[in-house]
From TrEMBL:
<feature type="transmembrane region" description="Helical">
    <location>
        <begin position="65"/>
        <end position="86"/>
    </location>
</feature>
<comment type="subunit">
    <text>Part of an enzyme complex containing four subunits: a flavoprotein, an iron-sulfur protein, plus two membrane-anchoring proteins, SdhC and SdhD. The complex can form homotrimers.</text>
</comment>
<comment type="function">
    <text>Membrane-anchoring subunit of succinate dehydrogenase (SDH).</text>
</comment>
<dbReference type="InterPro" id="IPR034804">
    <property type="entry name" value="SQR/QFR_C/D"/>
</dbReference>
<dbReference type="InterPro" id="IPR000701">
    <property type="entry name" value="SuccDH_FuR_B_TM-su"/>
</dbReference>
<dbReference type="InterPro" id="IPR014314">
    <property type="entry name" value="Succ_DH_cytb556"/>
</dbReference>
<keyword id="KW-0472">Membrane</keyword>
<dbReference type="GO" id="GO:0016020">
    <property type="term" value="C:membrane"/>
</dbReference>
<dbReference type="GO" id="GO:0006099">
    <property type="term" value="P:tricarboxylic acid cycle"/>
</dbReference>
<feature type="transmembrane region" description="Helical">
    <location>
        <begin position="112"/>
        <end position="133"/>
    </location>
</feature>
<keyword id="KW-1133">Transmembrane helix</keyword>
<dbReference type="InterPro" id="IPR018495">
    <property type="entry name" value="Succ_DH_cyt_bsu_CS"/>
</dbReference>
<keyword id="KW-0349">Heme</keyword>
<feature type="binding site" description="axial binding residue">
    <location>
        <position position="88"/>
    </location>
    <ligand>
        <name>heme</name>
    </ligand>
</feature>
<comment type="similarity">
    <text>Belongs to the cytochrome b560 family.</text>
</comment>
<keyword id="KW-0408">Iron</keyword>
<keyword id="KW-0479">Metal-binding</keyword>
Length: 134
């Protein structure tokens, strides 16, 4: 009778790969962040809908939404939402490039991963500098 913990006398191993098997790489980080930002976009979209509904509901409702988005917490939420949006977009572009078969080597995919993070951070800062200036 075969023991469930051994296969042909070998030590037990996971049935499928998991994070402890692999060396952590930038591409893994970007994959995880892409999934997290995708989920966070749902929350941010609810806030956008709240703002639009408040604008359509009249001055009193809109004043509450404006108060929130002009507060320090509201600005932080908007900053995080804009980074989330730009990061998810950059990750989507990276995946679109990969779908063509380009950039799949370890070195190139790592450069794409780092570039995704840099592009999203730089894009967010530039966007907020434009918002502050205008």
């Amino acid at each position: 009778m075969s023991d469930a913990k051994t296969v042909r006398g070998a030590a037990a191993r996971p049935m499928s790969p998991h994070l402890t098997v692999y060396r952590f790489r930038p591409t893994m980080t970007m994959s995880i962040l892409h999934r997290i930002t995708g989920g966070a976009l749902y929350v941010g979209t609810v806030l956008v809908v709240w703002w639009l509904v408040a604008a359509a509901s009249g001055p009193e409702a809109f004043s509450w939404a404006s108060w929130f988005f002009n507060s320090i917490l509201g600005r932080l939420v908007l900053f995080a939402y804009s980074w989330t949006l730009l990061h998810h977009m950059a990750g989507g572009i990276r995946h679109l490039v990969w779908d063509t078969g380009a950039g799949l080597s370890k070195e190139t995919s790592t450069k794409f991963a780092v570039g995704t993070l840099v592009a999203s951070l730089v894009g967010t800062v530039l966007l907020w500098l434009l918002v502050v200036v205008l």
